[in-house]
Design brief:
The chain is α+β, with helices and mostly antiparallel strands and about 375 residues long. It has helices at about 5-35, 40-45, 65-80, 80-100, 105-115, 230-265, 280-305, 315-340, 350-355, 365-380; strands at about 120-125, 140-145, 145-160, 165-170, 180-185, 195, 210-220, 225, 270, 275. The protein starts with 6 loop residues before the first helix and ends with a helix. The protein binds coenzyme a persulfide (COS).
Length: about 375
C-alpha cells in the first residue's frame, strides 16, 4: 500500500498540526483540570474544515478522504484528546447521515454538523445494559401516526449534553432482535430528551460523557435514518469507520507521549549521564517508536481501504485493537521513563496515560475487536 501523502493530505495534516500546536497544546492541561468543554475549539475546527474532512464539498466538507481524516485526528489527538473525541463523534455522525440519509436529511444536518452550527454531534447507541451487546437495547420507538415516540435511556454518550444533532437507536420491533432496531435523527433540545449528570471520568476530562433520558420524544417520519429495521447495520458500519478514528486518536496520544519521553531522556541526568545514554531507556524508546509506527501503518491501511470503498471492517478492528493496546503501553512507558515526575501533574505524560486508557474500551472494547477479527479469520 502506498502511504506517500498527496498535497491535500499533507495540507490537512499541516493545518491540524499548526492549530493543535498553537491553540490546543497551551490549553490542554487547564482544560483537563477544569473539565472545560471545547465549544470554541470545535468552532475553530469547523472553520478550518477539520470537522468534515471526509464529507463531500457539496455538503460543506473538505472531501479529502478517510486517510486525510485519520491524519487530522492524529494531529488533534496529539495535542488534546478531549477535543479530538468530540471531533471524532461529530465526524462519525456527519458520515452516517451522509451515507444513509435522504437528500433532505443530508441538506438539513450535514452542513450544520461540519460547519459548527450544531457545536457537536452525538451517537446514542449504548445503554446501561447494552454496551458490547447493543442488540440488547431497551429503548423503543413506537409508531405515532406517521412518526414515532422514543422512550428509554442511553449511557456513555459523548457530547450528549451539547450536541445539536444526535443519532438515537431504538427498537421499532422488539421481537425482531437486531433486525428490529432503527436509527433516528433527533435534534438537541427536542422535548422529552434530557441529559443527566456528566460522568466523573479518569481521562478525557474536557469532553462530556452523559446518560440520556428519552421520555416520550416525538419525532416525525423525516427523523428515521435509513429504513426501519436497518439501524443495527447502520450502527455497525458507522462503528467500523469510528474505529479508524479511535485508532488514529491512540496514535496521536502515543506520539505525544513518545516525544515527551525522548525529550526527558535527554534532559534528565542520573549517574552523571542523560538517562537516554542508558540502554534500558534506549530500548524502551525503540520499542515505543516501533509499536507506534506499526499502529500507524494498520490505521492508515484501514483508512485507505475505506477511502477506496474496499471492505474494511476487519482491518479497522485490527487497527483499533493494536493501536489502542500499544498506545496504552507506550504511554505507560513514557510515565516510567519520567520516574517519579511522571506520576505528577508537572509533566503531561500522566494525562496522556489517563486519556489513552479509554481507547481500548470505547467504540468497541479490545475483546469486541477480537470477536470481529476472529470471525473474519476463522468464521463464526
Ligand atoms: N457491517 C455491516 N453489517 C454488519 C456488521 C458490519 N460491520 N457487523 C454485523 N453486521 C450485521 C450482520 O451481518 C447481521 O446481519 P443480518 O441480520 O442480516 O444477518 C447483523 O448485523 C447482526 O450481526 P451479528 O449477529 O454479528 O451481531 P452480534 O449481536 O453478534 O454483534 C458484535 C457482533 C459483538 C461485533 C457487535 O455487537 C459489536 O460491534 N459490539 C460492540 C458495540 C460497540 O462498539 N459499542 C460501543 C459503542 S460507541 S462508545
Amino acid at each position: 500500500m502506498d502511504f506517500d501523502l498527496n498535497d491535500t493530505q499533507r495540507m490537512i495534516q499541516q493545518a491540524a498540526r499548526d492549530y493543535a500546536t498553537r491553540t490546543l497544546v497551551p490549553r490542554a492541561s487547564a482544560r483537563d483540570r477544569a473539565s472545560t468543554f471545547p465549544a470554541s475549539e470545535l468552532g475553530d475546527l469547523a472553520k478550518l474544515g477539520l470537522l468534515g474532512v471526509n464529507i463531500p464539498e457539496a455538503l460543506g466538507g473538505a472531501e479529502a478522504g478517510a486517510l486525510a481524516y485519520s491524519l487530522a485526528m492524529e494531529e488533534i489527538s496529539r495535542a488534546d484528546a478531549s477535543v479530538s473525541v468530540a471531533m471524532a463523534v461529530t465526524n462519525m455522525v456527519a458520515e452516517v447521515v451522509t451515507t444513509f440519509g435522504t437528500d433532505a436529511q443530508k441538506r438539513q444536518h450535514v452542513p450544520r454538523l461540519v460547519g459548527g452550527e450544531y457545536v457537536a454531534g452525538a451517537f446514542a447507541l449504548s445503554e446501561p445494559q447494552a454496551g458490547s451487546d447493543p442488540g440488547a437495547m431497551a429503548t423503543v420507538a413506537r409508531k405515532d401516526g406517521a412518526g414515532f415516540v422514543l422512550s428509554g435511556q442511553k449511557q456513555w454518550i459523548t457530547s450528549g449534553d451539547r450536541a445539536g444533532l444526535l443519532v438515537v437507536w431504538a427498537k421499532t420491533d422488539t421481537a425482531a432482535g437486531t433486525r428490529g432496531i432503527s436509527a433516528f435523527l433527533v435534534e438537541g433540545g427536542t422535548k422529552g430528551l434530557s441529559a443527566g449528570k456528566p460522568e466523573d471520568k479518569m481521562g478525557l476530562r474536557g469532553s462530556t460523557t452523559v446518560p440520556l433520558l428519552l421520555e416520550d420524544v416525538r419525532v416525525g417520519p423525516e427523523a428515521l435514518l435509513g429504513r426501519e429495521g436497518e439501524g443495527f447495520k447502520i450502527a455497525m458500519m458507522a462503528l467500523d469507520g469510528g474505529r479508524i478514528g479511535i485508532g488514529s486518536q491512540a496514535c496521536g496520544i502515543a506520539g505525544a507521549a513518545l516525544d515527551c519521553a525522548v525529550r526527558y531522556s535527554r534532559d534528565r541526568k542520573q549517574f552523571d549521564h542523560p538517562i537516554g545514554d542508558f540502554q534500558a531507556i534506549q530500548f524502551m524508546l525503540a520499542d515505543m517508536a516501533t509499536e507506534l509506527e506499526a499502529s500507524r501503518l494498520l490505521v492508515r491501511r484501514a483508512a485507505l481501504r475505506k477511502e477506496r470503498r474496499q471492505p474494511f471492517s476487519t482491518e479497522a478492528a485490527m487497527a483499533k485493537l493494536y493501536a489502542s493496546e500499544r498506545a496504552n503501553r507506550i504511554c505507560d512507558r513514557a510515565v516510567q521513563i519520567h520516574g517519579g515526575y511522571g506520576y505528577t501533574r508537572e509533566f503531561p505524560v500522566e494525562r496522556f496515560l489517563r486519556d489513552v486508557r479509554v481507547t481500548t474500551i470505547y467504540e468497541g472494547t479490545s475483546q469486541v475487536q477480537r470477536i470481529v477479527i476472529s470471525r473474519a479469520v476463522a468464521g463464526p
